[in-house]
Amino acid sequence: MWSIIVLIFFSTISYLITDELIPKMKNLFINAGLYGIDLCKISKEKVPEAIGVVSGCVFLVTIFLFIPIVFGNGLMDRGNFPHNEFAELLAALLSICCMLLLGFADDVLNLKWRYKLLLPTIASLPLLVVYYVNFNSTTFIVPIPLRQFFGVSINIGILYYIYMGMLAVFCTNAINILAGINGLEVGQSAVIAISIIIFDIIELRGDQFKAHSFSLHIMIPYLATTLALLKHNWYPSKVFVGDTFCYVSGMTFAVVAILSHFSKTVLLFFLPQIINFLYSVPQLFHVIPCPRHRLPKYSAETDILYPSKTVISKKEMTALNELVLGILTRFRLIDKLEDDDSITINNMTLINLFLIKLGPMPEVRLTASLLLFQIFCTCVAFLIRYPMASYFYDVKT
Questions:
Q1: CA distances for 243 relative to 66, 217, 284, 373, angstroms
Q2: C-alpha span between 310 and 313 (Å, rounded)
Q3: Which pTM does this prediction carry?
Q4: What are 53-75's pLDDT values in tens digits?
């Protein structure tokens, strides 16, 4: 437990360093051409992009410096050095480092979507190798209602590794597609990180003490640097975090989910991201036309955000288009306008759905509403994880 106290001290220092570095590095990024214009503001001043690389670097350096403290006793007594735990930490850091590099490359080179799916898969390989060497457990417990069909447990072999690889891809991209307004990417990541930390603290009393201690060693410095970044990314944003931050955040969550063995619980904390992904599927797979940017539409006259729209030409309509639009219309999940030549609907993101259901609103209020929804879903996740778990499992899994 003393290591956690020291880590909190280290993380406090990392917060202060990140908070100090970000303003000083703004001009460096702008001079390098890494800047953008905030499309939801009247002002057209240059805002530095990819600042997530700053918080990501401080986060990693903090963990690097903390390694001798965590493994100090083992360094003094080499005969009892915890090689497996050390390999887990190094694999975690390697995967996060890979995503930091690849995320920054994406911000600079503007990679295509197929690469955004491939890169997290490659970066997760060190995790999967260490998992295979240290654990190689590919059995999962079947929920009680399904045991009469499948038995108590099922060994799915290599499919479990495919699932973990897909988890890394989902976590990195799920945050990236629920983004576009000031403070949302960093805010949702901070809420997820706090949720995982609370879960770890609760579970420290159980038989998985080492796994949850490992998770805390990753999540506490991550949260510290993320909060420092949020201070500068909150409305009105002075910096943009870029894909770098989304990739690092997603891989960090995937690391603790895989190596600390609570991937199902982490997915529960991703409920808003899962909802956003499912809602976005028709556009992501181009069943519905998908513009490059699906940001809300900004009105300079009122300083309010409205749902952005996409247009479907009736001449190009297919049976699949009609089926999807019919389902979405029936469940009132889209705002549809139709004329003789085309159908106009909102872009299908959770951000635009909030604007449809709650009405147009200022950007800061929209961000706050989405983060409150994230917090609400966290409460639902804990409700499912604890009081309701007994309906599906004999013991906590």
A1: 27, 24, 17, 23
A2: 10
A3: 0.93
A4: 999 999 999 999 988 888 876 66
